[in-house]
Design goal:
The complex is a heterodimer of chains A (114) and B (112).
Chain A (H helix, E strand, L loop, with lengths): L3 E4 L2 E5 L4 E7 L7 E6 L6 E6 L5 E4 L2 E6 L4 E6 L8 E7 L10 E2 L3 E6 L1
Parallel strand pairs in A: 2-11
Antiparallel strand pairs in A: 1-3, 3-8, 4-5, 4-9, 6-7, 7-8, 9-10, 9-11
Chain B lengths: L3 E4 L2 E4 L5 E7 L5 E8 L3 E10 L2 E4 L6 E3 L9 E3 L8 E8 L6 E3 L3 E5 L1
Parallel strand pairs in B: 2-11
Antiparallel strand pairs in B: 1-3, 3-8, 4-5, 4-9, 5-6, 7-8, 9-10, 9-11
Classes of the chains: A mainly beta (114), B mainly beta (112).
Chain lengths: 114, 112
């Protein structure tokens, strides 16, 4: 059973456009929702994260929107740039024991055309 | 500050061979984990550790062993390599206070 479902699998956006990646989760005990960015040949790195007590978090051009009742969260990249071309993973985790280990979505390959 | 260091970066094995992927972290993180990344499958958890001497299985543990004798090191052993284990392997460490996972650069393993 896939605990975190991510869509789309791939996304092509023109420079200056908005990129939107969506994730849905099953386990209501999850209490931490990070997004990771991965460039080719590199390991994933934290981009931005949110906890369920807020509905939105913004850092520069990157915004997470969180809908607790729908069990969904999304990443919005405003004014997308070619340098944003990467694979993006959403993840979820909860506190306590091995649950701190994040469960990842399957990833979205984003290409931003100049 | 090196963070999470994985060796080797690339490896080719023949079916049936065994090997150990090394992972070391210098951030004194309690948690360490191993993932494999395959196209379209995302990052799947193989094994994880919540502290020295404590390990547990993840989503895809078959064919892999781990141990954690120190806080810093978390090696992943392939017992008898199979072509299905061709993948990119990532080690990560995490501290429960920050909840952020720090990843190594990965090991690209090909089993022929």
């Amino acid at each position: 059973q896939q605990q975190v479902k991510q869509s789309p699998q791939s996304l092509i956006v023109q420079k200056g456009g908005i990129s939107i990646i969506n994730c849905a989760y099953e386990n209501t005990a999850f209490d931490y929702f990070p997004w990771y960015q991965q460039f080719p040949g590199k390991g994933p790195a934290l981009l931005i994260a949110i906890r369920p007590d807020v509905s939105e978090k913004k850092e520069g051009r990157f915004t997470i929107s969180f809908n607790k009742s729908a069990k969904q969260f999304s990443l919005h990249i405003m004014d997308s740039q070619p340098g944003d071309s990467a694979t993006y993973f959403c993840a979820a985790s909860r506190g306590g024991g091995g649950s701190y280990i994040p469960t990842f979505g399957r990833g979205t390959s984003l290409i931003v055309h100049p | 500050n090196a963070g999470v260091t994985q060796t080797p970066k690339f490896q080719v094995l023949k079916t049936g061979q065994s090997m150990t992927l090394q992972c070391a972290q210098d951030m004194n993180h309690e948690y360490m984990s191993w993932y494999r990344q395959d196209p379209g499958m995302g990052l799947r958890l193989i094994h994880y550790s919540v502290g020295a001497g404590i390990t547990d299985q993840g989503e895809v543990p078959n064919g892999y062993n781990v141990s954690r004798s120190t806080t810093e090191d978390f090696p992943l052993r392939l017992l008898s390599a199979a072509p299905s284990q061709t993948s990119v392997y990532f080690c990560a460490s995490l501290t429960t206070s920050a909840r952020v996972a720090f990843f190594g650069q990965g090991t690209r393993l090909t089993v022929v």
